Amino acid sequence: MAMRTILIVEDDRALIDILKYNLNKEGYHVVTAFDGGQALDVARKNRLDIILLDVMLPVIDGFEVCRILRKEMTVPILMLTAKDSEIDKIVGLEIGADDYLTKPFSMRELLARIRAMLRRSDMLESKPPKEDISIRVGELEIDKGRRQVSVGGRVTELTKMEFDLLLFLAENKGIVFGREKLLDKVWGYDYQGETRTVDVHIRWLREKIEADPGNPSYLITVRGAGYKLEG
After folding, report:
1. 183 touches 168 (CB < 8 A)
2. What predicted TM-score, i.e. pTM, was given to this entire model?
């Protein structure tokens, strides 16, 4: 298998050196950018497997970089933030980041996230296209081939992870999954990771597919157990 290329976008050069050293030691090829403008240039000129993207960047901030790149490419993006702030996490996920990691983080945790994201990306690329297969749940239609969701005939835009989470729940309609199980099945994490990621995605999915997000009819919370799809 060809060496995987990771772009690190971070204005802290000491942190970049540490990350680059450890990722090189794990067999990854690393390219770097120190501001948002440079990040866009490097991303467009290289075939990347993952982008580690800091939020607080000079020139163009990480949120705007993520928003631009997501319109141009499907490479997995892991947002890095020094702020343990709910709004930063929500914004990052909503504009298309696959996940977030709050500083300070351990190299063990970062490497586990990277491996999970690469496994998931490989699985998506290896699946044969299924243009004619759709799942219907009430007024909700999930077109697996086009990776498109409509509610009552109206198409609603979902991020990659929102779609994958909704598809997994639809394929297992009525079954309750805890946060850790969803991290394992949808994100591919094989360790006890950050469960708030699941909650944020469920919240945004409800905003997009439910007539009344505060009283959902599709994405149901089972107190103390997790989530399920009904309809």
Report:
1. no
2. 0.71
